[in-house]
Amino acid sequence: MDVDAVVNLVDRIGLETVLTEMAGYIEEDYRRWGEFEKSPRLASHSPDGVIELMPTSDGQAFAFKYVNGHPANTAKGLQTVVGFGVLASVSTGYPELIAEMTITTALRTAATSAMAARHLARDDASTMAIIGLGAQSEFQAHAFRAVLGVRRLRVYDVDPSATRKFLANMRDLGFEITVARSAAEAVLGADIVTTVTADKAQNHILSDNMVGAGMHLNAVGGDCPGKTELAADILRRGEVFVEFTPQTRIEGEIQQLEPDFPVTELWQVMSGKAPGRRGAEQITIFDSVGFAIEDFSALRYLRDRMVEAGDGTRLNLLAAPTDPRDLFGLLTAREHPATPVAV
Fold first, then answer.
1. 208 catalytic per annotation
2. How many domains does the chain have?
3. Given a cut of 80, is residue 311 above it in pLDDT?
4. Which of 89, 205, 333, 343 has its CA 20 to 30 A from that of 122?
5. Is residue 32 within 8 Å of 268, Cβ to Cβ?
6. pLDDT of residue 342 exceeding 50
7. Which of 29, 157, 191, 223 is catalytic?
8. Distance between CA atoms of residues 8 and 11, nearest Å
9. Are 281 and 188 in a shared domain?
10. How far is CA 155 from the centre of its chain?
11. Within this chain, do residues 137 and 231 fall inside the same structural domain, yes or no?
12. Residue pair 297/32 in contact by the 8 Å Cβ criterion
């Protein structure tokens, strides 16, 4: 499924329906966490960014995503994050789906954020602050409305052009949007705070005095070693939930803290093995860095929708000689077409 196929899928089904359904797929896979192979992503870091592979398998299907994170790309007219993914059969090793995962990663990231917040935010949460209005911001807004009913947004970005872009994309979509003059002003009165910045540095987008009792923090900005968004004191005040602890300790907010700082993995909440929010005054933090199972779920979702609607394009990507032992014969088949042989 190329970019056009994914865009057509969203147009046909509806963005918020896709986000809601994808969140369901992700939660379903989180509930069977023990069936998956799990490892931190394979990352190649450079001064300009990072290139990563994110693999996993549930024993029936194998998936991986290739993805980058290059914050300076926007100055070159390029996306900060691009990616593609593969879903393959474990029994044959044959790829069944190759899909774009730039738009799809934005969809699955927002769907995961909203899925987590459904278990971690207060039931009466109705206002969300978004700090950072880059490529992910609109997806987050739609996901939180689709899954939690959030319609009031308080937004801030250091770049006025990003704010103008966000407002133009969200015009006439039924959101109540307040543009703040600072991150501190944006979080005033917010029940949920989403930080989604891209700068590859250890910044404190939120300081401890900005976070009030009962808030749910969704720290989802592009992560890597040395990049953070939350002051360490916030993490110590609240309860931190993560996807896969070994990966988050390398790339997430908790890289600032001692190696044995206690966290709860999100699958434990999904499967009822650990509580999510325990009270209205509790501060909850989703230290999200993205994990391969979420990409597995997203690819599984795309495959199912593709099969239903007949979307996508068949690629002549895998060699299929008539005789599986005669791969070389494909190189000469056009020059020397086979002739019938009497047996």
1. no
2. 2
3. no
4. 205
5. no
6. no
7. 223
8. 5
9. yes
10. 20
11. yes
12. no
